[in-house]
Amino acid sequence: MSTSTSPAEATSTPPEDSRHALKHSSKRFGDTLFKALSTGSGITILVILAAVAVFLVGLSVPALLADPEDLPYGEFWAYVLPFAFGTVWAAALAMLFAVPVSIGIALFLTHYAPRRVATTFGYIIDLLAAVPSVVFGLWGINTLAPLVRPLFIWLEANLGWIPLFAGPVSGTGRTVLTAALVLAVMVLPIITALCREVFLQTPRLHEEASLALGATRWEMIRQAVLPFGTPGIISACMLGLGRALGETMAVAMVLSPGETIHFKLLTSDNPNTIASNIALAFPEAYGLGVNQLIATGLVLFVITLVVNMGARWVISRRREFSGAN
Amino acid sequence: MSKRIELQDVDIYYGKFHAVRQVNMTIQPRAVTAFIGSSGCGKSTVLRSLNRMHEVIEGAYVTGQVLLDGVDLYARDVDPVRVRRQVGMVFQRPNPFPTMSIRDNVLAGVRLNNARVSRKESDELVEKSLRGANLWNEVKDRLDRPGSGLSGGQQQRLCIARAIAVSPDVILMDEPCSALDPISTLAIEELIHELKEEYTVVIVTHNMQQAARVSDQTAFFNLKAQGQPGELIEFGDTEKIFHNPEEKATEDYITGRFG
To answer: Does B88 lie at the interface with A, CB-CB under 8 angstroms?
Structure first.
């Protein structure tokens, strides 16, 4: 900071001195340090991402350029397509279950529950996020799969004419639907926690505007809370989707995998996901096979990138109406 | 339609905190009533008790009766949502919905309760309400633009248009000009003059010239002492309150000799 001079002194001092007082100070150490730290953190992210991309591309190229005859798992695109499909399909199903429930829980916590209940509930949600995925995998195999099998049988018997629920029903219950349910439980805490923060940010002014117009609480939520929170909800979903797309262990444990592309939810022949397939196949892979598996990882990387860019585009399209101005 | 509001033995609380004590007054229809008083004396609190917005805050409640043309707004079988349809409110800071266009903002109240309005009806209502808020000429070419893109004064008039679109009986205004420049303030004050032809208008203001300019009757609120609940000290014709008040405290406040 500048040296302290009384106003009287300041007017009487020579021009050089007063100019000196206004000079750009190089001594603001805190500012410099903070700028360096934050810039450094930003660059680190880019470097890590670039390193991962270079690794993926570098080790994928041999598999992508190789003669299909030499590849241990056969032609690359024919090999990766079922896994890419399985990844997107399982993640989409998981989001279908998780997003409405998460938004519902977040709304309950922010707008319906008494404060004490909301606090306790918040801790439980956070706790759920800390459960390791291998535990979710075990739970999926031992508890969820046997539990949902009767439901699957009922679905097949009553709604079997819908292709989604076509039989034969898996004997173990370890189908893509079960895996998606496990994934949904795993992404639930992430989306819920973020949506909760987003909903808490709704300006009180807008909520009151809506109530004063004669809105019921649900109408107020639809009129003020949800529109204001839309960009935040989309971001929360993207983080959840990122986890669902990349989740390895739980899917690898729960799913009884095949290499097919179909939308049947209840059969024992399920499309595997990219991450799960890498985990299952990697221990026995050698030579070009390693490159081929890494190339499937590159495909997952690209899928995630495309989905996120899509989400950003959706958010930016409504920027004018976002309430940020 | 314009309705009379009677407050009988109204006490207002925030949880254990007794905010306002024993208010008894009758607010006339087709007139502007101003609430004045220093910060924290409970005038906004009283205003918010007139459309049951006070109880939106957790733990807040009201005792006594608020009669709208004889009907007690706090009777057991009264739905606060319905009360707020009849008693519109304009807030201190302009608060159009940022995610909606100007047009949708005006229609926001009308569309509640799953009301279906035809395109033609809603067009007419938008024009009528915006004209009623003296905003039509400024925004008629950009009804589909976001409401948050307007100036502060225009946003406040948009909020007034939104409030009158549902044709309420009463319009409450909580310091509607305190965030606005003098020119926008003038526009709102002129509008208040027109609004009283059709509505009962109650306005809270910190600006005593404003109270003197726009209101027919004035209520002065004050605290007996720090930590005590606020009270209605004097209520009467604005002319009388400003020139010949009965209470010493009122005179001190009006003339600026106030601690």
So the answer is: yes
Encode pLDDT of A251-307 as tens digits: 888 888 877 888 888 888 888 999 999 999 999 888 889 999 999 999 999 999 999
In chain B, residues with a C-beta closer than 8 Å to the C-beta of A318 are 99
Which of A202, A204, A321 is best to mutate for the B interface (most B CBs within 10 A)? A321
B54 vs A contacts (CB less than 8 Å) = none
Q: Does residue B70 contact residue B257 with C-beta atoms inside 8 Å?
A: no
| Full 3-state SS string of chain B | CCCCEEEEEEEEEECCEEEEEEEEEEECCCCEEEEECCCCCCHHHHHHHCCCCHHHCCCEEEEEEEEECCEECCCCCCCHHHHHHHEEEECCCCCCCCCCEHHHHHHCCCCHHHCCCCHHHHHHHHHHHHHHCCCHHHHCCCCCCEHHHCCHHHHHHHHHHHHHHCCCCEEEEECCCCCCCHHHHHHHHHHHHHHCCCCEEEEECCCHHHHHHHCCEEEEEEECCCCCCEEEEEEEEHHHHHHCCCCHHHHHHHCCCCC
pLDDT in tens, B123-180: 999 999 999 888 999 999 999 999 888 998 899 999 999 999 988 999 999 999 988 8
In this prediction the pTM is 0.83
Residues of B in contact with A223 (CB under 8 A): 97, 108, 112
CATH number of the domain to which B34 belongs: 3.40.50.300
Residue from the list A211, A230, A324 with its beta carbon closest to the beta carbon of B56: A211
pLDDT mean for each 10 residues of chain A (325 residues): 46 60 72 93 95 94 88 88 93 95 95 89 88 92 92 89 84 90 94 93 92 92 92 92 90 85 85 91 89 94 91 81 58
Residue A271's CB is within 10 A of a number of other CB atoms, namely: 25
Residue pairs between chains A and B whose CB atoms are closer than 8 Å: 86
Q: What is the extent of the structural domain holding B220?
A: 5-255
pLDDT band at B80 (very low <50, low <70, confident <90, very high): very high
Task: Please state the CATH superfamily assignment of the domain spanning residues A51-321 in this structure.
Answer: MetI-like (1.10.3720.10)
DSSP characters for A224-245? IIHHHHHHHHHHHHHHHHHHHH
Q: Is A41 on the interface with B (CB under 8 A)?
A: no
CA distance A174 to chain B (A): 44
Q: How far apart are CA A226 and CA A202, in angstroms?
A: 9
For chain A, the domains span 51-321
Q: How far is CA A56 from the centre of its chain?
A: 21
What is the DSSP-derived secondary structure letter of residue A323? Answer: S
Please say whether the beta carbons of B218 and B247 come within 8 A.
no
DSSP A194-211: HHHHHHHTS-HHHHHHHH
Predicted-complex ipTM score = 0.90
pLDDT tens digits along B231-248 = 999 999 999 999 999 988
What total of structural domains would you count in chain B? 1
Q: Is B58 on the interface with A (CB under 8 A)?
A: yes
